[in-house]
Structures are given as structure tokens and as C-alpha cells.
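Retry 2 of 3 after timeout on previous attempt. Resubmitting C-alpha cells to design endpoint.
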């Protein structure tokens, strides 16, 4: 890894033992490889060719992420995605499968990711380093338990692509949804409903309120959720978190890390470190593409 890439990865916290903090750092490393699905113009072009709107990212986002679940309706998608307004989900998923079925969308997303990785990584998609990284990421993904994790299970059930760079993307996707499903369990344990999960996250500065508003909740729903959290002593009248509110969100993130740990514990410290090293330059290339937003609702770098 180059000195520049090593410095960038170390700045993100990658390094050390496979402990809960390390689990979060490995997520920070792999998340951009998955997230290209929702921002790469090559994927957008493939979805537009199927007939999905491209006025913003949401008409494609919902079917792209939901396709592994099969031809499910808006209610099940809203349940699995959790923090999106059911109205927003219904608006995009009500007729999505009339435009193109899940199988067509799954094929389109692989075509788009193939093109996006090749555009960003160039000849490195054929390199031995990426192939080794893909094999390690696949080992971790294949050890991820999917009980009670619908999105992880749906992606894990899909056939593995043959090309190493597509295996890397698929592994990153399985691991990302594995963590995400566990995160929803942590939110439920904390007693945070879908809109409260966003209000409480905005309250600790994970992202701006405006960024969270993209999930489709009305101002009235947001205000009502803030009031419910205020009654519990979790937010101030101005919407910022109280000490108890920050402590609750810290417990949610720590619980999420614990629930996401098994694949990395299975991989082991040495191979987790090797994966970090192999992916460093590719990670920098993905971030340097300018395709991913500087602020996201995931709170990466903020929690």
C-alpha cells in the first residue's frame, strides 16, 4: 500500500485487533465498495434502461436494494429498510415490479457495478491483490449468520459472481446488510421507532437534519418524534441530545458492533489486517471518485 493510502486508511481507524471497535472500522472500510451501487452513473444507466426514473436516486435505490427479497410489496420493504417513511417506500415500490422484475434488477445491478468498478479501478480489477481481497471478504461474508436478518439472508442466497471484483462487491453487500439488520435489532432493543431512530441520530450530530429529511418523514412526524424523545429525557427542546440521549445512541452503536462481529472473528485478526492492507489503495480510489456523498445518514466518521 502506498504511504498516502496507508495514511488514509489509518485515519479512518483501520488497524488493530478484531474487537468491537475494529468491527466498526472494517465496516468503514467496506461500506464504500457496497455504496457505489446507489451512486455510480453506470448503475443509474442500467436502471434507466429498464425504465426506472433518474430524476433523483430514489426510484432506483428502492428496487436495487429490495430486489434480493423477491417480488415483495411496499410494506415488507418498509419493514426491512425501517427508517424510511412507509409513504416514501410505497411511492417508489408500489409499481416498481411492473417496470422490471427483481431478476432483471439483479442483473442490472451486477452489470452496473462491473462497469463502475472497471471505470474507477481500471486494470486493478484484474490484479492479484484484488482477487486475494475478494477471497478474504468472501470468507467473512460466508460466515455471517443470517438468522433474523432478512436483507443479509436475501443477498447471501444469491449466487456468487465469478469475477473477483464482483465477488468483492457481493461480499461487501452481504456484510453491510448483515450489519444493517443487526442495527435494526439494536434500535428495537433501545425502543427507537423508525422516525425516532433518525431524530436521535441527528441529535448527536451524525448528520444534518436536512440529510435525514431525505427519508420522507413529514415535519409533523419529525416534531412528534422529537417530543416523544424529549419526554424520555433523550433530547433538548432545540433537538440536540441530552447526556442520556448520547449514552443511548452509544449503546446502540456498540450493540450493533457486537452483533456484526462474528464474520470478522471468524476471519481472524491476521486476515482482517491483510484485507485492510489489500483494499487500502482501492478504498482511496473509490472515495476519490467523488461519487459518494461527503455526508450520509450512516454517521460514518461521526459515531
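Retry 2 succeeded. Sequence:
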Amino acid at each position: 500500500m502506498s504511504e498516502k493510502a496507508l495514511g488514509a486508511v489509518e485515519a479512518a481507524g483501520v488497524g488493530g485487533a478484531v474487537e468491537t471497535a475494529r468491527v466498526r472500522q472494517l465496516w468503514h472500510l467496506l461500506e464504500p465498495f457496497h455504496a457505489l451501487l446507489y451512486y455510480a452513473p453506470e448503475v443509474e444507466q442500467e436502471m434507466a434502461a429498464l425504465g426506472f426514473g433518474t430524476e433523483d436516486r430514489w426510484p432506483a435505490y428502492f428496487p436495487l436494494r429490495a430486489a434480493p427479497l423477491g417480488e415483495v410489496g411496499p410494506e415488507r420493504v418498509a419493514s426491512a429498510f425501517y427508517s424510511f417513511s412507509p409513504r416514501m417506500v410505497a411511492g417508489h415500490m408500489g409499481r416498481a415490479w411492473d417496470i422490471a422484475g427483481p431478476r432483471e434488477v439483479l442483473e442490472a445491478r451486477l452489470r452496473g457495478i462491473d462497469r463502475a468498478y472497471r471505470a474507477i479501478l481500471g486494470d486493478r480489477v484484474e490484479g492479484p491483490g484484488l482477487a486475494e481481497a475478494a477471497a478474504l471478504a468472501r470468507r467473512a461474508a460466508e460466515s455471517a449468520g443470517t438468522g433474523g436478518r432478512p436483507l443479509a439472508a436475501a443477498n447471501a442466497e444469491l449466487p456468487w459472481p465469478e469475477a473477483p471484483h464482483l465477488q468483492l462487491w457481493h461480499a461487501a453487500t452481504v456484510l453491510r446488510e448483515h450489519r444493517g439488520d443487526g442495527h435494526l435489532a439494536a434500535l428495537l432493543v433501545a425502543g427507537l421507532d423508525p422516525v425516532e431512530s433518525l431524530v436521535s441520530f441527528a441529535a448527536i450530530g451524525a448528520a444534518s437534519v436536512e440529510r435525514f429529511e431525505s427519508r420522507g418523514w413529514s415535519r409533523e412526524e419529525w416534531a412528534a418524534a422529537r417530543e416523544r424523545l424529549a419526554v424520555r429525557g433523550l433530547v433538548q427542546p432545540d433537538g440536540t441530545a441530552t447526556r442520556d440521549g448520547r449514552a443511548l445512541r452509544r449503546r446502540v452503536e456498540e450493540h450493533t458492533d457486537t452483533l456484526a462481529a462474528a464474520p470478522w472473528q471468524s476471519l481472524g485478526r491476521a486476515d482482517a489486517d491483510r484485507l485492510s492492507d489489500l483494499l487500502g489503495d482501492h478504498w482511496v480510489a473509490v472515495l476519490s471518485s467523488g461519487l459518494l456523498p461527503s455526508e450520509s445518514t450512516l454517521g460514518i466518521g461521526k459515531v
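Attempt log closed. Residues 14-188+254-288 form one domain.
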